[in-house]
Structures are given as C-alpha cells and as structure tokens.
Amino acid sequence: MGGYHFHVSGGAVVLMLQSDTLWFLPPLGAALINPKAEALPGYVAFAHGQALYAPPDYSSDDAPVIVPKPHILLEARMRILARDDGTERGEWRSSHNIPDDRWDYINLDLLPRPFKVYYKANKSETISRAEYVVGLKRTLGVPVDPKDYDLDPKKYGF
Predict the structure, then answer these.
(1) d(C-alpha 118, C-alpha 139), whole Å
(2) Phi, psi angles (nearest 5°) of residue 7
(3) What is the reported pLDDT for 139?
(4) How far apart are CA 105 and CA 61, in angstroms?
(5) Half-sphere exposure of 97 toward its Cβ, with a 13 Å CA cutoff?
C-alpha cells in the first residue's frame, strides 16, 4: 500500500509500485527510461501532448513522463477493488478513490469485455455495489465469501 504522494500545481501525483497496482502488465523495462514514442508498449503513453488525461499535464519535452493509458488505470482500479474489497487495504483505497465521473473520458471499448460490462452496469446503477464487486471477483477468480455480501444465495450460487 506504500507509495509516494505529492502535490504539484493543479493536482496531486501518486507514485505506486507496479507490483502493487499494475501487476497484470508485463514488467516495465529500462527501455522506458528515455523512450521514443514509437517504442512505447501499447498500454502506456506520454502524459503530455495528447488528449489522454484531463488536465493537469505533468511532463514536458525535456522530462517525459510515461503513464498507463486511461483504460489500463480503470482496469487496474477494478482489479484492485476485487482484490482488496473487505480488507484494511481496501478500506484505505476506497477512502482515496477517484470519483467515477473522472473516468467519463475513457474509451470503454478498450477495456476487456467483462470489465466493460461490469463498469457500465455499475455506472448506470443497474447492479448494486455488492453485485459489482462479486462480479469482478468472480471474473478474476478471487474467492468470494457470501457472508460478506447481502445477495440472494440462489441467484449468485453461494
């Protein structure tokens, strides 16, 4: 759960370990230290000069900052929720979560299908938070304890 958090003009920056937040991606290699745009893996981009993120812009041409693409961050957020829900770590993360309206600019078609389906259903409130979390956990093979969720056991096969 450790990381570095600091404020810059217009926002905050949080640096977290890849193994804690983006474990499902290939390891980030030394090729990303001084990269060329055409050599970037498909899941990262420069944080400047593109309409990837809402402002602020955290980098310049002199010091490029490489960030995961928005749909990758949203997928990571969903994976972390499934992994950490019901734990002390999950409680800390949920108290430091980005509101859902910050994700409105993401092309959801880039998400893997189950994540896209659960995200849209949760966003439109056609499923409860418990159904959302249980769906994510099952998608990822994370064990689900039915005592943790107020859901119909017959409907969810508990």
Answers:
(1) 10
(2) -105, 140
(3) 92
(4) 24
(5) 19
Report the 10 Å Cβ neighbour count for 36. 8
Please give the biggest Cα pair distance in the chain: 58
* pLDDT computed for residue 117 by the predictor: 92
Q: Say how far apart CA 79 and CA 37 lie, in whole Å.
A: 28
CB-based burial of residue 78 (10 Å sphere; 0-12 exposed, 13-18 middle, 19+ buried)? buried
pLDDT, tens digit, 9 for 90 and up, residues 75-125: 888 888 888 887 776 665 555 455 555 566 788 899 899 999 998 898 888
The CA–CA distances, whole Å, from 90 to 40, 53, 99 equal 31, 25, 16
